[in-house]
């Protein structure tokens, strides 16, 4: 990895898809003007986070207006745009999908959320699988100057997936996500910092801004954690762009001091598992 600047755009999401798309574009342009080379959007940035709405807001890769905006903007701004997530239609299925575009507007990668958010919390039941299908691929994006692993929200609770991405050589784990007012205070910082410390990589998580009138209230507090586990940037609850310089030397230094990846005992784990 080369040193590079990454921005997370914490933006509000409304019921107006057209507004959401142009609002995201404005925010990405602002981040690029501030010098960002990698820009990250939140989970479901073009659609309210309500499972029953996903199919009607969904679009296909080939015809989607959100996808077209992201490709055009990445090209014009000469950036890598990790496009949060949108409901993606493919045949009979809808997925929670992150499309990433490169500086020539080319598609660098597509992550379909692997672990769907089917949970039963106090006063909050969510069943993504009622309208979404699960992804089944590991998503590593080679942006040239850095390697990015993508997971979406609930995926972060599965350390096995993060470890596979890290073994594939990523420098930064990018996580568009929409925790809520129950899981956010309890686990947002904890899970993001844990994945960074486990794997000695940067973690950048992008949340929608909080809207207390929404059916599902996103936590906010988009965050970037360094490979030591220090929080190097953290948004509040409103709209905000946070920006961080990612430094490969920081990864080397932490891995040099605590050689976790080289001290793994995969031979022993295989024996124990049998
Ligand atoms: C989540 O997976 N949206 C929490």
Automatic annotation (TrEMBL):
GO molecular function: omega-amidase activity
Domain of life, per lineage: Bacteria
Gene3D superfamilies noted in UniProt: Carbon-nitrogen hydrolase
Lyase as UniProt keyword: no
Record-given protein name: Putative amidohydrolase
Family matches, as Pfam families: CN_hydrolase
BP-aspect Gene Ontology terms: asparagine metabolic process; glutamine metabolic process; oxaloacetate metabolic process
All copies of domain CN hydrolase, residue ranges: 4-248
InterPro entries (alphabetical): C-N_Hydrolase, C-N_Hydrolase_sf, Nit1/2_C-N_Hydrolase
SUPFAM superfamilies: Carbon-nitrogen hydrolase
PANTHER family associated with the record: NITRILASE-RELATED, OMEGA-AMIDASE NIT2
Protein keywords: Hydrolase
